[in-house]
């Protein structure tokens, strides 16, 4: 049996398909599983031992996609599952000509599938893993359990060696407690203010001589990260400033390796938080317009995690197109003190 899985992007959404990969492997142990993904999210599944083949396919336009479709058709897949639902993903699923094509019942594209699954249009308090798992129901796969099928990302040995060396070069020793703080997000609706990050980083650095705070960010937020580091160090004494560690940029594989070395991870509801969820590290998640019920770490319930959010806002959750109040209060009302307290509780548990 040959099964094609399509989830082109984003990082967090690709992470959310990994429990389904395990479920498919358990249900069809002898199946050949192929996963199609775009380059940005490819490291999530590149080393997954449950997959037989990962096809990294950048967007090159319609002509290239038609050629890709012909290539997929030659593979003669028995089943194709479109976890994505976007125009390109649905086209590739249809072009694969798989005998059974499973996707969401989306207006204008549902005809491309042989089995259509309803997808709610409203923002329900239901986890994204469960929403994507609905596509497995036609294959007779039971509902998901995070204890049996958590999110997964296999650590890359070369990335782990690189991260270990960079930490040594930054004078981080084995006895230090590494706190990873991710300061960027994919859109302004999920971006906690830079001043709040600076206050948090300074607070955590000052609390314990063993703390080493490592800031990470996406490529577009390097300047913001430098600003947070500078502002945080101004709040500290000269002997404490070295506790904020500069290690440069981290690739997705390196971020996963860094998290394995961390005592706690702190960040907004974005792809890196879900990468962190593939580890056993305690996690503090900052939830603005989104709900923890939809995107909290999907893993063993015994693994420590705390959600920091503002309750009682009529505008929350939202579709992240327009901030109705205009002041992003779901984020700005989260204080650095709240986040630091959550981190310290998890560090204490550790």
How are the SSEs placed, and which strands pair?
Layout: E1 2-6, H1 11-27, E2 32-37, H2 42-45, E3 53-56, H3 62-74, E4 79-82, H4 87-95, E5 100-104, E6 115-117, H5 128-133, H6 157-169, E7 177-182, H7 194-207, E8 211-216, H8 222-234, E9 244-245, H9 252-261, E10 264-268, H10 271-276, E11 283-287, H11 292-295, E12 305-309, H12 329-332, H13 336-349
Parallel strand pairs: 1-2, 1-4, 2-3, 4-5, 5-6, 7-8, 7-10, 8-9, 10-11, 11-12
Give structural attributes.
Rossmann fold; alpha/beta; 350 residues; 2 domains; 6-stranded parallel sheet; 13 helices; single chain
Question: What would your notes on this structure say?
Answer:
With 350 residues, the chain is of the alpha/beta class. It has two domains: 2-139, Glycogen Phosphorylase B (Rossmann fold, 3-Layer(aba) Sandwich); 157-349, Rossmann fold (3-Layer(aba) Sandwich), CATH 3.40.50. Helix content is 36%, strand content 16%. The chain is built from 13 helices and twelve strands. It has helices spanning 11-27, 42-45, 62-74, 87-95, 128-133, 157-169, 194-207, 222-234, 252-261, 271-276, 292-295, 329-332, 336-349, and strands at residues 2-6, 32-37, 53-56, 79-82, 100-104, 115-117, 177-182, 211-216, 244-245, 264-268, 283-287, 305-309. The strands form two sheets. It has a six-stranded parallel β-sheet with strand order 3-2-1-4-5-6, sandwiched between helices. It has a six-stranded parallel β-sheet with strand order 9-8-7-10-11-12, sandwiched between helices. Strand 11 (283-287), helix 11 (292-295) and strand 12 form a beta-alpha-beta unit. It is globular, with a radius of gyration of 21 Å. The termini are far apart. The mean pLDDT is 94.
């Amino acid at each position: 049996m040959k099964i094609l899985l399509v989830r082109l992007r984003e990082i967090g959404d690709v992470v959310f398909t990994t429990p389904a990969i395990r479920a498919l492997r358990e249900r069809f142990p002898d199946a050949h599983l192929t996963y199609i993904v775009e380059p940005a999210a490819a490291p999530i599944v590149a080393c997954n031992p449950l997959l037989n083949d990962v096809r990294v396919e950048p967007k090159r336009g319609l002509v290239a996609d038609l050629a890709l479709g012909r290539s997929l058709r030659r593979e003669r897949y028995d089943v194709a599952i479109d976890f994505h639902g976007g125009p390109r993903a649905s086209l590739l699923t249809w072009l694969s000509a798989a005998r059974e094509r499973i996707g969401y019942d989306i207006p204008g594209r549902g005809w491309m599938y042989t089995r259509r699954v309803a997808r709610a249009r409203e923002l329900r308090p239901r986890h994204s893993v469960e929403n994507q798992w609905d596509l497995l129901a036609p294959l007779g796969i039971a509902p998901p359990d995070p204890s049996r099928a958590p999110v997964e990302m296999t650590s890359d040995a070369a990335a782990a060696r690189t991260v270990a060396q960079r930490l040594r070069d930054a004078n981080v020793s084995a006895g230090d407690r590494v706190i990873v703080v991710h300061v960027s997000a994919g859109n302004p609706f999920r971006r906690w203010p830079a001043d709040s990050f600076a206050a948090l980083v300074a607070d955590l650095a000052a609390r314990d001589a063993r703390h080493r705070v490592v800031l990470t960010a996406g490529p577009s937020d390097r300047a913001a990260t430098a600003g947070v580091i500078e502002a945080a160090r101004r709040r500290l004494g000269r002997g404490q400033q070295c506790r904020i560690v500069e290690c440069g940029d981290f690739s997705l594989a390196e971020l996963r390796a860094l998290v394995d070395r961390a005592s706690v991870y702190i960040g907004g509801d974005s792809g890196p938080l879900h990468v962190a969820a593939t580890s056993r590290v305690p996690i503090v998640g900052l939830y603005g317009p989104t709900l923890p019920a939809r995107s909290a770490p999907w893993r063993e319930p015994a693994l420590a995690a705390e959600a920091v959010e503002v309750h009682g806002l009529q505008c929350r959750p939202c579709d992240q197109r327009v901030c109705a109040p205009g002041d992003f209060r779901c984020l700005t009302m989260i204080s650095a003190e709240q986040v630091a307290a959550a981190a310290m509780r998890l560090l204490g548990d550790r």
